[in-house]
Amino acid sequence: MTGRTGGTTGEPAGAGTYTLGLLYPPAGRNRTYTSMQLAFIGGVAEAAAAFGYDVLLSPAATAEDPSLRRMVAQQRVDGVIVMEIRREDDRVEYLTKAAFPFVAIGRNDGTEGTGWVDLDFAGLAAGCVHHLADLGHRRIAFVNRSEHLFNSGYGFARLGHEGYTRAMTQLGLTPHAYLCGDDLASGEKVVERILHDDPATTSLVTMNEAALEGIYRGLTRQGRSVPRDFSVVGVAASPWAEQVTPQLTAAEIPAKEMSRAGVELMMERLRSLDAPPRHVLLKPLITLRASTGPCRAAPGMEQGVEFPDFEIDF
Fold it and tell me: Is residue 109 packed enough to be buried (19+ CB in 10 Å), middle (13-18) or exposed (0-12)?
């Protein structure tokens, strides 16, 4: 199977469909695409168009999905970009056994033989913990993605949890991690759970941008002002980090850059199927905005001020 090559626009290297497959199962409630996922879809389509390629989107979550089977058996596409990689992902195994060109946005042990691009989610979660610890916070909760995604083995959810837990343990702090649905109501509920479990919590790290507005609303309802007496830091793309008030201090998810890198790796793969795979691990810095501040005791948790006894001679 031959793809198109050459420069920015790309020139045909031989017969082909001039189409890339994008395997991207929806992660939102009721099998809808989240805002972040839509940003990735747009990024892949834009990057592919620069090489003269179209994109065929499939919601395939497993190798048994008919749309994935048709892509391969009928050679409807020249190559496939696989997203929402799980720790155990039979789509990766299927494409590898079929010797069908593919790259991944995300990674697991099975993707080491092909190109991939990913974020250092473990490192980013750990960096968020250290940022809060530097501000004096010691009770730091972690708001992850949904129970469904976590239990399905989604790499970013598992890696984020591992990075948070490792950083907390290294600092001698007690981890408190929570799973949260990708919606506003779930964000409100997770705040209730956090403060019920430990009312003295003064900060949290989140990887759930879809629940961010709900998290803020939940904190307000619980009488916590951000960042005066509660700090929030996360991993989120700038449009979501900047649309809340106060704006979120966050490590960027560069959807457009990752999409472009994934398409470029796919083009490299199609030009030379035998070339060694290239791996791209992005480690964006935390952008300081307005949602984090020095630790203050949670409302109602302040210690009474004690004054020393003085002996005064007149």
Answer: exposed
Note the pTM of the prediction, 2 decimals: 0.85
CA separation for the pair 210, 198 (Å, rounded): 24
pLDDT single digits (tens) 174-208: 999 999 998 999 999 999 999 999 999 999 999 99
The 3 state secondary structure assigned to the chain is CCCEECCCCCEECCCCCCEEEEECCCCCHHHCCCHHHHHHHHHHHHHHHHCCCEEEEECCCCCCCHHHHHHHHCCCCCEEEEECCECCCHHHHHHHHCCCCEEEECCCHHHHHCCEEEECHHHHHHHHHHHHHHCCCCCEEEECCCHHHHHCCEHHHHHHHHHHHHHHHHCCCCCEEECCCCCHHHHHHHHHHHHHHCCCCCEEEECCHHHHHHHHHHHHHCCCCCCCCCEEEEECCHHHHHCCCCCCEEECCCHHHHHHHHHHHHHHHHHCCCCCCCEEEECCCEECCCCCCCCCCCCCCCCCCCCCCCCCCC
Contacts of 138 (CB under 8 A, 6+ apart): 173, 202, 295
What is the spatial distance between Cα 161 and Cα 121, in angstroms, rounded to a whole number? 9
Any bridge partners for residue 58, and if so which?
A: 23
- State the residue for tokens 């916590």: 224
Over residues 63-99, the pLDDT tens digits come to 999 999 999 999 999 999 999 999 999 999 999 999 9
* Nearest partner of 199 among 179, 216, 219, 180, judged by Cα: 219
Angle subtended at Cα 95 by Cα 89 and Cα 99, rounded to the nearest 5 degrees: 150
